[in-house]
């Protein structure tokens, strides 16, 4: 009743409540007693409300704590799930990382391709294919790779602009070179250059056999101790007969006494753009005591009908190697730096002979003696060839 009578009293409840304990009712004043009682009731209500609110707040706090606990529990569960990786799984992960690195080395795989299972399967197939290769297959592959590389190299070399060598020609040259003629064969160029070089002061007459019409000139070189020899002669036979005698190796052993052994090793197939035939031969030469015997492995190029003239043949030869005749301690492997001949039939049964020889017999001592005897070698060859032609013609007549 009194609370509605004056709203200010209600507003004063908090302050009154703070001082309610100090209030004492007066026996003679009922009004004051009523006010006091009402204040006490209101104070109790306020206290009760405060307690209720505190309880509610406590409940809310507990709920929040429970919620936080639930969240913490969820987080812990997630952590536990992540932490459930065993040591073995970690090791497996490391292995898988290495496998992935190897896969990436084998093929260029992008991130999207790694995700793509099909592409990963293809990678595995390739790895399995590589793993199935044995040593023999690897060797064969290497051989094939080398073969391909060699073929590529040959193709590249064929594309390079070929050098053209203009052959020298002088008024008294042995070989008459057509105007503006040139060659892309270096061996041909070197041989013809020596054959056509004038007999100037650098060439010395080393042997003159007028009876057999043989002259041998020598020239000292700065690049080797071996003499360069150039021989002039002629034989009373046709070019055809001379070449038949030379090319028949079975028959050659009957007349060619300059060699203990001479044999054809290999005929080299002729290429489309080649104007010459080529082959490899082996020869064994006896040397006088106390010198060690020598042998040669040489590659020959022969231009039949040289420069379009069916009466001319040019031959070039120089040392090479061959698996059938490997180098040994004895006999000593000599080197033919450059050798060859030019035959020209000038009339029936008369052929001019020109020989070139620059052979290093690999001597360490007695070089001056060897060089003094060197001019005898081409002379002996021509004399043997003459006998061979006689034997060939007699054999045909029988």
- How many helical stretches? 13
Largest beta-sheet details: 10 strands, mixed
Average pLDDT confidence is 81
How many structural units, i.e. domains?
2
CATH homologous superfamily classification of the largest domain = START domain
Secondary-structure element order, N to C: HHHHHHHHEEHEEEHHEEEEEEEHH
Please tell me what the overall shape is: rod-shaped
Instruction: Pick out the low-confidence regions.
Output: 1-9, 23-28
Task: Walk me through this protein's architecture.
By secondary structure, the protein is an alpha+beta fold. It has two domains: 2-75; 166-397, 2-Layer Sandwich (Alpha-D-Glucose-1,6-Bisphosphate, Chain A, domain 4). Helices cover 48% and strands 22% of the residues. Strands 3, 4, 5, 6, 7, 8, 9, 10, 11 and 12 form a ten-stranded mixed sheet that branches. The longest helix is centred in the first third of the chain and has 53 residues, at 30-82. The protein is rod-shaped. The termini are far apart. The relative contact order is 0.08.
How would the blueprint of this fold be written?
Blueprint: H1 2-5, H2 7-11, H3 13-19, H4 30-82, H5 87-106, H6 111-115, H7 117-131, H8 135-159, E1 165-166, E2 182-183, H9 186-196, E3 204-209, E4 214-219, E5 228-235, H10 239-247, H11 249-255, E6 261-268, E7 277-285, E8 294-304, E9 312-319, E10 332-333, E11 335-347, E12 350-360, H12 367-373, H13 376-397
Parallel strand pairs: 8-10
Antiparallel strand pairs: 1-2, 3-4, 4-5, 5-12, 6-7, 7-8, 8-9, 9-11, 11-12
């Amino acid at each position: 009743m009194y609370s509605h009578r004056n709203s200010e009293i209600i507003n004063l409840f908090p302050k009154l409540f703070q001082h309610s304990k100090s209030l004492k009712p007066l026996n003679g004043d009922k009004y004051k007693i009523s006010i006091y009682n009402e204040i006490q009731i209101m104070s109790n209500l306020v206290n009760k409300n405060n307690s209720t609110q505190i309880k509610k707040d406590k409940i809310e706090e507990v709920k929040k704590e429970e919620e936080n606990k639930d969240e913490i529990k969820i987080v812990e569960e997630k952590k536990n799930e992540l932490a459930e990786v065993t040591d073995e799984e970690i090791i497996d992960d490391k292995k898988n990382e290495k496998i992935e690195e190897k896969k990436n080395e084998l093929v260029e795989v992008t991130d999207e391709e790694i995700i793509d299972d099909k592409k990963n399967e293809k990678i595995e197939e390739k790895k399995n294919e590589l793993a199935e290769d044995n040593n023999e297959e690897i060797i064969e592959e290497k051989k094939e790779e080398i073969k391909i590389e060699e073929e590529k190299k040959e193709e590249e070399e064929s594309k390079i602009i070929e050098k053209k060598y203009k052959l020298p020609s002088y008024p008294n040259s042995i070989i008459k070179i057509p105007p503006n003629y040139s060659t892309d064969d270096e061996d041909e160029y070197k041989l013809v250059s020596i054959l056509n070089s004038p007999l100037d002061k650098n060439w010395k007459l080393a042997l003159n056999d007028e009876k057999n019409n043989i002259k041998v000139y020598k020239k000292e070189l700065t690049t080797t101790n071996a003499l360069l020899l150039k021989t002039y002669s002629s034989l009373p036979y046709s070019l055809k007969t001379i070449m038949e005698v030379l090319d028949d190796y079975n028959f050659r052993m009957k007349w060619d006494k300059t060699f203990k052994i001479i044999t054809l090793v290999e005929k080299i197939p002729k290429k489309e753009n080649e104007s010459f035939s080529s082959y490899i031969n082996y020869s064994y030469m006896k040397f006088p005591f106390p010198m060690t015997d020598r042998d040669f492995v040489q590659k020959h190029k022969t231009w039949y009908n040289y420069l379009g003239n069916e009466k001319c043949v040019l031959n070039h030869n120089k040392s090479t190697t061959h698996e059938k005749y490997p180098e040994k301690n004895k006999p000593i492997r000599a080197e033919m730096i450059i050798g060859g001949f030019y035959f020209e039939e000038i009339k029936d049964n008369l052929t001019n002979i020109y020989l070139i020889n620059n052979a290093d017999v690999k001597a360490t001592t007695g070089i001056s003696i060897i060089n003094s005897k060197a001019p005898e070698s081409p002379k002996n060859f021509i004399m043997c060839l003459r006998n061979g032609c006689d034997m060939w013609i007699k054999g045909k007549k029988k």
